[in-house]
Amino acid sequence: MKLLVVLSRLPWPLEKGDKLRAWHQIRCLSARHDITLVAIHHGKISDGAVEKVKEICKEVHVIKRNLLSSFWSVLIAFLQGRPLQSGYFYSTKADKLIKKLLHTNTFDHLYCQLVRTTAYAENTTISKTIDFQDAFAHGVYRRMKKSGWYLRPFLYIEYRLMKAYEYHSFELFDHHSIISLPDRNLIAHPQRNTIEIIENGVDFQYFIPMDIPKSIDLVFTGNMAYPPNIDAAEFLVKEVLTLIINVFPDIKICIAGANPHPRVRALASKNTEVTGWVDDLRLKYAASKIFIAPMQIGTGLQNKLLEAMAMGIPCITSPLANDSLQGENGKHLLLASKPSEYASQIIFLLENKPKSEELALGGNAFVKHNFNWENSTYRLEKLFIECESF
Questions:
Q1: Do residues 119 and 242 share a domain?
Q2: Is position 210 within any domain?
Q3: Which of 168, 240, 357, 388 has the smallest C-beta neighbourhood within 10 Å, fewest atoms?
Q4: Contact in structure between 237 and 218 (CB atoms under 8 Å)
Q5: Is the dihedral of CA 73, 74, 80, 84 positive or negative?
């Protein structure tokens, strides 16, 4: 098949969840299909990123956006009653390019990732699939509940607009996919049960157990400009660390990930390292005794948990994060909600090496059995083929 794929970001480097998902899906699909990619991009393009993406695509078109044009598009989106982030990722240049590609090529299918790209599928007759990935509207709602009073009115408006836009996106596309059952259940559409669940996977040839000295007690990774990760990092240091430090005064926490927000940088101390971008996150995973993801807000599947489990690191996370993962508490990972529960679980694992090793083995077996890029992308491919059989 000839596939036209539209993304809201160039899928390299892999420092964001949507980029990771897009990269591996395209990588798997490209083994059997010709892929033309159109990617909207804000900011500087990393050295070698376009060349890297060209390795798995027949054609790559990158539409760069600047702050002025994005601000104008956001304003138009608001006046039209669309969510602000749909405006932020909309480009008339990209829209014209996509329409031209569809007119001059015989593509078999259009695949759009995230409702941010819905506008590019308007007024097209080609068969098409939307990857919701997460329940974005509900993610905005959760963020609103944790935000200051001055942000809540704006986030509430965005939540309402995004909820309506998710409904509109459902109606526009022939097929739909999402990352997990809990996210599917949060999509406000009467036919949401028809959305195909396409889980993420793990690159098991890359994320493998490594035998190196354990110099870090706790590690938390991710894009540290992403609000749910900022919130989790603050929760870990301000509310959990204070309960552990009397038992382990020299405990070492590593917060590793790209673009740390000033609120995350402010957490650095003699007990807490904030690294910023790390060239090889595997070294941080492998040097850590415990991986912790104390997610309080957000939606979707936490790739960081999949990677840590694949590397044989015992994990502690929240019931919210485990909703999509569906690991068994005490066998594949440990769950906690309150700061005192996190502190208790951390102290337990630090003092109980046999249980820590048992949990690591259980988590590793769990992700290998349930999260495979090739298998999940094959189910996505079947959606495309179904459209062609209509």
A1: no
A2: no
A3: 388
A4: no
A5: positive
Together in a domain, 167 and 260: no
Specify the pTM: 0.89
- Backbone phi and psi for residue 253, each to the nearest 5 degrees, phi listed first: -110, 135
CA distance 75 to 64: 19
* 3-state SS class at 18: helix
Are residues 385 and 353 part of one domain? no
- Identify the burial level of 124 via C-beta atoms within 10 angstroms of its C-beta, where 0-12 means exposed, 13-18 middle and 19 or more buried: middle
User: Of 128, 125, 106, nearest to 117 (Cα)?
Assistant: 128
Helices (H) and strands (E) in the chain, counts: 17, 13
Question: Total domain count for the chain?
Answer: 2
Residues 148 and 238 placed together within one structural domain of the fold: no
Question: Alpha-carbon distance 235 to 390, whole Å?
Answer: 50
**390 has pLDDT over 70:** no
**Six-digit token string for 119:** 């506008």
- DSSP secondary structure, 307-375, as one string: HHHHTT--EEE-HHHHHHH-PPBTTTBEE--SHHHHHHHHHHHHH-HHHHHHHHHHHHHHHHHH--HHH
CATH number of the structural domain spanning residue 160? 3.40.50.2000
- Backbone φ and ψ for 136, nearest 5 degrees, come out as -60, -40
Same domain, residue pair 239 and 167: no
Residue 6 bridge partners (DSSP):
38, 112
In sequence order, what are the beta bridge partners of 39? 7, 62
User: Which helix (H) or strand (E) segment is 143 a member of?
Assistant: helix 136-146
According to the model, what pLDDT value does residue 386 have?
79
Q: Which domain holds residue 325?
A: 216-370
Q: How far apart are CA 73 and CA 84, in angstroms?
A: 8
Long-range contacts of 50-54 (CB under 8 A, 24+ apart): 50/10, 52/12, 53/10, 53/11, 53/12, 53/23
Residue 209 placed within a domain: no
Total count of residues recorded for the chain: 390
Task: Flag whether 266 is in a domain.
Answer: yes
